[in-house]
Amino acid sequence: MNLRTERPKSAFFILALFALSLLAIAAVNSACGKHAEEGQTETAEEGRAAVIVEGLNTLEGTVKLVHGPFLYIPEIVGFDVVLPAGIDASGLAGRSVRLEGEFHRETPSILTAVRIDVLEEENKYSNFYTKSEGETPLSFFNQHDREGYPALKLTTASASEAWEGKGRGRVFGRLEKRTVTEADVQNETNVISVSDEKGNLVGRILVDGISEFAAYGMKKLRLFDSFWFYLEIKESVEAKTRTKTLDLFRADVVFAGLY
User: Fold this and answer.
1) In DSSP terms, which residues pair with 129 in a beta bridge?
2) Considering the entire predicted model, what is its pTM?
3) CA quadruple 136, 142, 148, 151: dihedral positive or negative?
4) Which element (helix H / strand E) includes 252?
5) Pick from 168, 207, 170, 169: nearest CA to 190
6) For 143-157, how does the pLDDT look when each residue is reduced to its tens digit (9 = 90+)?
7) Handedness of CA 32, 36, 39, 41 (dihedral sign)
8) pLDDT of 46-56, one tens digit each?
9) Are residues 59 and 117 in the same domain?
């Protein structure tokens, strides 16, 4: 008799436990589903790029990098912010800003700053810069001019026809420092080392000057060892010296990029 009485109780207990397990699993799945949806929403928000239109744009973001009058703001994808010459913008690094900038199709990838306000506290900004009359226009590399810098096919130090008479060109290489002793004084100079597909050194380009915009571009490329240098080509190194040192020619760098 006791057995008949206890079996229904045991069965009821097992069914109740099973039901509670199902409820627990459903609750966990629901929570995970909500968490996944929230994660997808956050990812979508983070991946949203600013839309730039012809003329005046108002944008917000955090200044990641400053070099001279050039600003890099990751939220403004594909654009560099340009201030007039002579303005020290170094204090903007790491700051959240609201930018009014002009975009014109003649100068793609460039936003000319009209006004910059810096976030001081929640929803409160202070003015850093407002455009005024008579400011000195700044020189930068126009992306439309890329085609005017053909890739130089450097093969050997003796094949000077690869660069002589070209005037302009671009090479894929690595910027390096070289110490030169002149009149018992040591000075550091820049050279661009160019290698072939097997990694063998083809030659070096002696760098006389680097534009502010090129230096800014190289800062943005700090995670890369090698990239493209856009050059204003100058005189060749004397032939005998080229063969001995692999120094090819002198040039000024006007732009640096990944392509």
Assistant:
1) 116
2) 0.77
3) positive
4) strand 247-257
5) 207
6) 999 999 999 999 999
7) negative
8) 445 678 999 99
9) yes
